[in-house]
Specification:
Structural class: alpha/beta
Distance between the termini: 45 Å
CATH class: Alpha Beta
Helix content: 25-40%
CATH superfamily: Aldolase class I
Length: 326
């Protein structure tokens, strides 16, 4: 027997309790990673004008930042260094006394349990601002891979838990994995910026890390925003080379790519980077009256709903505070 009864899904939305009970996607602070910019030349924090509310930090300021992050219950940070010295090969990036190496050791003393992720790249360490060693204004892949391995080993020795190669250099994961295995760092994980698009959404980041290219752009090594099938090829290659985790950057304009990666590799942790431009756009819209907290949380929900297991976000501390209020 059948009945001609109305189907009204609104019945399940009538109370806050029922809406919360039936919510399919949830945000948890345990899935958030806070990026930090550590400067070797500063004695105090310096505002990042294109990213309101964020700062370049000195080593002296780092303990206060780590204590706040720890108190908020965030599990991880990813570190970007701003060195005092830049040269053609980014030698400060693999110095034992490099700024990130110093920061890693300082953080480890403050909070031994905090997960430390080290960005492995050269753009902020080279005097030309590109992501590797150059030959005739092009990336020399072989020389760059050798130095990427050297940089990764230096950061691993300082105490980083995960190494995150971000330069979009072919073979970078394999070079780092082989170096780690040969030097008794097989327990160190590799978070690959597998799908990194040549996007203007990373514009404010250039100010924050002081690593804008002095000529040209990065379109010859970062991905074309028009491509998504290529992302699956990149992911497969990185997994074959020894990546433990994969990431898509930027996040919001590439939710389809996050979803495709999660569907193709369901057992692999997939991350997303809510980049500086995404942060700046929400901040700018909020200055014109948009509800910042609501839109922020909706943006994070959309990234999680697409399939991201973890999210790097400049809003990580704000999200942790919002979650504590609810």
């Amino acid at each position: 027997m059948t009945y001609d009864l109305p189907i009204r899904l609104m019945r399940l939305r009538q109370s806050k309790a029922s809406r919360h009970l039936l919510q399919e996607t949830r945000i948890d602070k345990s899935n958030l990673i806070m990026p930090l910019f550590i400067s070797e030349v500063l004695s105090e924090r310096k505002p990042i004008h294109s990213m309101p509310g964020l700062f370049q930090l000195s080593l002296n300021e780092l303990p206060y930042e780590i204590e706040e992050i720890s108190t908020l219950g965030l599990p991880a940070v990813i570190l970007f260094g701003i060195p005092a010295h830049k040269d053609a090969i980014g030698s400060s990036s693999f110095s034992e006394q490099g700024i990130v190496q110093q920061a890693i050791r300082r953080i480890r003393d403050i909070n031994p349990d905090l997960l430390i992720i080290s960005d492995i790249c050269f753009c902020e360490y080279t005097d030309h601002g590109h992501c590797g060693v150059l030959s005739n204004q092009r990336i020399d892949i072989d020389k760059t891979l050798d130095l990427l391995a050297k940089q990764a080993l230096s950061h691993a020795a300082a105490g980083a838990d995960w190494l995150a190669p971000s330069g979009s250099i072919d073979g970078m994961v394999l070079a780092i994995r082989q170096a780690l295995e040969k030097n008794n760092f097989s327990n160190k994980a590799i978070l690959s910026y597998t799908v990194k698009y040549a996007s203007p959404l990373s514009g404010p980041f250039r100010e924050a890390e002081e690593g804008a290219p002095k000529f040209g752009d990065r379109k010859s090594y970062q991905m074309n925003p028009a491509n998504s099938n290529e992302a699956l090829r990149e992911a497969e290659l990185d997994l074959q080379e020894g990546a433990d985790l994969l990431m898509v950057k930027p996040a919001l304009y590439y939710l389809d790519v996050i979803q495709r990666l999660k569907q193709q590799f369901p057992q692999v942790p997939i991350g997303a980077y809510q980049v500086s431009g995404e942060y700046a756009m929400i901040k700018a819209a909020a200055s014109f009256g948009m509800q910042e907290k609501a839109v922020l949380m909706e943006s994070i929900l959309s990234i999680k709903r697409a399939g991201a297991d973890f999210i790097i976000s400049y809003f990580a501390k704000d999200i942790a505070r919002i979650l504590a209020e609810t």
